[in-house]
């Protein structure tokens, strides 16, 4: 029993770090943070960071090898392999009917309000959109794109915010990377001012 444990530890040490990282990256279905990845491969964080940078260069074809059809990106606070954008149509055609259903226009509008205004209550979103958003908020919660942040101490109203799943789907690291709201929007733009929301 002791010999098996020793042999497994020796194998981890003898296997190159980049191979261990690739093995983990191939099996994850959502971005994995640097510290969690370092723990998974039993290596120091700085060494893992350097290996990730080398892998990015290698996959981009900056070394001796060819550029790959996938890339390694840091998204939503973690690292993951992604298909390169130019192959999206090919992959979408291959996957076909397995693609998840798209969000409705109402869901996209509600999600945008929550993303830009969070933390925000359901009634504030309804006020901005001028429609009832109860079912849309339930849909967004079920899809894991928004979450309940906290309940207002005075009113008990739930405040909502976006999740890391939204960042992953948008391919960004933080909400700071969202485009600014266009100054040309007249319809509903006032709803985003602090003073107009009660």
Describe this structure in words.
- The protein is an alpha+beta fold and 198 residues long.
- It is 46% helix and 13% strand.
- It is built from nine helices and five strands, in the order ααααββααβααββα.
- Helix 3 (34-40) crosses helix 4.
- Give a count of the beta strands, DSSP E runs of length 2 or more: 5
- Biggest sheet record: 3 strands, antiparallel
Summed up, the helix count is 9
Mean pLDDT: 82
Give the structural class. alpha+beta
Q: Name the helix and strand elements from N-terminus to C-terminus, one letter apiece.
A: HHHHEEHHEHHEEH
Shape: elongated
As residue ranges, the low-confidence spans are 1-11
Read across the widest sheet, the strand sequence of neighbours is 3-5-4
State the end-to-end CA separation. 66 Å
Strand content: 5-15%
Helix content: 40-55%
* Radius of gyration from CA coordinates: 22 Å
């Amino acid at each position: 029993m002791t010999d098996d444990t020793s042999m497994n530890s020796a194998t981890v040490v003898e296997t190159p770090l980049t191979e261990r990282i690739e093995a983990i990256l191939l099996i994850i279905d959502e971005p994995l943070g640097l510290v969690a990845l370092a723990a998974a491969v039993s290596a120091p964080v700085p060494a893992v960071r350097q290996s990730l940078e080398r892998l990015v260069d290698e996959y981009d074809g900056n070394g001796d090898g060819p550029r790959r059809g996938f890339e390694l990106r840091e998204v939503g606070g973690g690292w993951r392999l992604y298909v390169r954008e130019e192959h999206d149509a090919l992959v979408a055609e291959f996957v076909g009917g397995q693609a998840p259903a798209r969000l409705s226009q109402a869901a996209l509008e509600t999600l945008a309000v929550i993303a830009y205004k969070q933390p925000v209550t359901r009634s504030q979103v309804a006020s901005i959109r001028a429609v009832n958003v109860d079912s849309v908020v339930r849909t967004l919660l079920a899809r894991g794109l928004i979450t309940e942040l906290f309940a207002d101490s005075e009113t008990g109203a739930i405040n909502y915010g976006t999740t890391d799943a939204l960042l992953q789907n948008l391919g960004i690291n933080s909400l700071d990377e969202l485009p600014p709201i266009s100054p040309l929007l007249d319809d509903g733009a006032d709803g985003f001012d602090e003073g107009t929301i009660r």
